Amino acid sequence: MTLMAQQDLRRPVTPWTVIAAILLPPLGIFLSRGLTPAFWLTVVLTLIGWVPGMIFALALLFVPEQIPIR
């Protein structure tokens, strides 16, 4: 794991990011991680259904070390 990836895991979650992840899941991931594979996976899950996208986005925000997608 690179130093950059370790810093991303330690970035604090802001209330705005959580609100964005609930209302529009890809936006919450974009605000916290940028255009990464996790963002695109969140887009696909949100297109399938809002609930799967929201659950995945919140999981990425609160337990990023448990999900191997960066």
From TrEMBL:
One of its GO terms (cellular component) is membrane. Keywords: Membrane, Transmembrane, Transmembrane helix. Belongs to the UPF0057 (PMP3) family. This is Uncharacterized membrane protein YqaE, homolog of Blt101, UPF0057 family. Pfam families: Pmp3. The keyword Chloroplast does not apply. InterPro entries: PMP3. It is found in: Membrane. The chain crosses the membrane at residues 12-32, 38-63. It comes from the Bacteria.
